């Protein structure tokens, strides 16, 4: 039995079940992008976790460990936190790919110095990275990826019954391998624009050799910025398809964690 009581009488057991279920859900929301954004109040995240937790305890027969505050109970809580953080971390990897691509494009365009505070992660990221992040967020939400991901979080209570299942080494390895796939996705996103910028820099280099009186910096930097913006506009339809594929890959990877 849990020695700590809240004095709610008959609903004491249901309250403990709700708090126990909210551990995994809250950890998932804390690790997932846009749910963990600095603009999202902590009270709202707790309210979302509580609302989902009420549905979980109504639909699934989740039982609280008999000694939740003991050493074994704390290990169970840690396993709940690990499962939730892993489900949210998969989405973080998905949203990190466009930022890596923006770093490469911004460096080639000469805009890597233009940085600002990212409202999602709270860290400093290039201005182009924020544009990619907003675009990916719109595509992800438009495809209903957040609803599918929340469904997977609820289904994880069936795939990983609390206190009876841990993430295996193979599943943790698959998350690490998914990170390498995101590096490949970042290269695929940045490749069309960086190729155009490479051609512009080669032309600027040829011109500077043929006409040494020309100032390479005054010619190459504006040409690189204009060429990069034009390439981004031309590649916009391709970006939408790539971001849709990224959203699908993130959901598929989260779903694969529930398959044992």
Contiguous low-pLDDT stretches (5 residues minimum) are none
- Content of β-strand: under 5%
Largest sheet: 2 strands, antiparallel
Helix content range of the residues, please? over 70%
Shape: elongated
General description of the model:
The chain has helices at 12-31, 42-59, 71-109, 127-142, 145-159, 169-210, 216-234, 236-257; strands at 115-117, 124-126. The protein has 260 residues and is mainly alpha-helical. The protein is elongated, with a radius of gyration of 24 Å. The chain has one domain (9-257). The model has no long low-confidence stretch (mean pLDDT 80). The protein is built from eight helices and two strands. It has a two-stranded antiparallel ribbon with strand order 1-2. The longest helix has 42 residues, at 169-210.
Concise summary:
The chain is built from eight helices and two strands. By secondary structure, the chain is an all-alpha fold.
